[in-house]
Amino acid sequence: MSANNKQESVSKLTPAAISGSLQVGIGRYKKMSLNNDPVYSVLTVGDQLLWGAAEPLRRMLNILLGKI
């Protein structure tokens, strides 16, 4: 978790800072309401190559290795 100031945001909430990890940085969030249900709008920063391409392969490999 980072402090809520510009220096922390600029240094820790960038694609370069998150790159290579499966962590997702949360830049800011805002509570909203939809039909009286709480809904949150969230700005995220993450490594899209890992999550978009490698993560499904990693999960499938773990499933296969667990069943062999």
Automatic annotation (TrEMBL):
Report whether Oxidoreductase shows up as a keyword of the record.
yes
EC number(s) in its UniProt entry? 1.2.1.11
Q: Per UniProt, which keywords does this protein have?
A: Oxidoreductase
GO MF, any single term: aspartate-semialdehyde dehydrogenase activity
Oxidoreductase as a keyword of this entry, yes or no, is: yes
**Which top class of enzyme applies to this chain?**
oxidoreductase
Q: Indicate what this protein is called per its UniProt record.
A: Putative aspartate-semialdehyde dehydrogenase
Read off the lineage from the record: Bacteria, Pseudomonadati, Pseudomonadota, Gammaproteobacteria, Enterobacterales
Gene assigned in the entry: asd_1
